[in-house]
Amino acid sequence: MSDVTGTIFNIQRYSIDDGPGIRTTVFVKGCPLRCPWCSNPESQSVAPQVLHRYTSCVKCGACAAACPNGAIAFTAEGGPAFDRAKCVACGECVRACLNDALKISGEVMTVEKVWKTVRKDEVYYETSGGGVTCSGGEILGQADFVAELFKKCRENGIHTCADTSGFGTAEALDKVLEYTDLVYFDLKHMDDARHRELMGVPRDVIVRNLETVAARGIPVTIRVPLIPEYNSGEENLRATAELVRAVAPNATVSVLPYHKYGASKYASVGMVYALDELRENTPEELERARAIFEEYGLKCEVSK
């Protein structure tokens, strides 16, 4: 088997939310987008990182004493403070921690190593119509790894789903699509200036890649995270519906309600969650979004 590697921050077995049936979801690390509502902040950097779970920390100071790079400043009152610029994720602090308050997020793994985990649940894929999903982070940033894993899945009759923001090179997309059975494709905002402001990348690359997916005839589900005050206005929803109707009229649209499930993880990687005060969607807003997409002749569902 290929010795192609990818940096993985989670392999979630028995997943039922990342495609049809029972699936194994492989989460790759690294994403060029910086969505303020990102629920996986540990996925943004491609490099392995030390995560600090403050609720488990007893402020013993063992991590600071073990760090060979002086990346952890410690006070008995405040506990450890991490200098992320100095940290190389060597794992010495993790090994020294006696209370499991530290862990490394991100491991460089070969396709073969990931495949050994994936194949454990082949019987569930067969009986449920499930398979393997690659998510992230952004999978197009590790296209060689994803393509090799999907190729192995296809050779063994396992369904594959590519979960992507759509931001990546045409070459990377082609590699992944060659072995992809289903695409989950995010659309976050239709105004290019606003898209650049919020996500840090232009919109046109994403539209171009959606056109490529549609032209290849691969089934696609358009996922629209509905974020109050950011992209939930009627003008943006109608612009999104118009694009989908023009490019991928047979796609299913899945409206994703805003939630704060990942907010608590920001502190663990030394980040601040910017939307802490943002409210969640009302049922009326979710139903209105569904109605708009259906008005354009699109099949639409509201996810839980």
Characterization of the model:
The chain is α/β, with parallel strands linked by helices and 304 residues long. It is 31% helix and 23% strand. The longest helix is centred in the C-terminal third of the chain and has 14 residues, at 234-247. The protein has helices spanning 62-66, 92-96, 111-118, 122-128, 143-155, 170-177, 192-199, 204-215, 234-247, 283-295; strands at 5-15, 23-28, 49-52, 72-75, 79-82, 102-105, 107-110, 131-135, 159-164, 182-186, 220-226, 252-257, 299-302. The model has no long low-confidence stretch (mean pLDDT 96). Helix 3 crosses helix 5 and helix 5 runs parallel beside helix 6. A 9-stranded mixed β-sheet has the order 7-1-2-8-9-10-11-12-13. It has a two-stranded antiparallel ribbon with strand order 3-6. The protein folds into 2 domains: 5-45 and 107-302, TIM Barrel (Alpha-Beta Barrel); 49-105, Alpha-Beta Plaits (2-Layer Sandwich), CATH 3.30.70. The chain is built from 10 helices and 13 strands.
Quick structural gist:
The chain contains 10 helices and 13 strands.
N/C terminus separation:
38 Å
Strands of the widest sheet, in order across it, are 7-1-2-8-9-10-11-12-13
CATH architecture assignment of the largest domain: Alpha-Beta Barrel
What is the radius of gyration?
Answer: 20 Å
Query: Which spans of ≥5 residues are poorly predicted at pLDDT below 50?
Result: none
Assign an overall shape: globular
Q: In which range does the helix fraction lie?
A: 25-40%
Whole-number total of structural domains: 2
SS field, number of helical segments: 10
Number of strands: 13
CATH superfamily of the largest domain: Aldolase class I
Q: What's the pLDDT, averaged over the residues?
A: 96
CATH class of the largest domain: Alpha Beta
Structural class: alpha/beta
Q: Can you tell me the CATH topology of the largest domain?
A: TIM Barrel
Main sheet attributes: strand count, strand direction, barrel closure? 9 strands, mixed
Oligomer: single chain
Helix and strand element order: EEEHEEHEEHHEHEHEHHEHEHE
Strand content: 15-25%
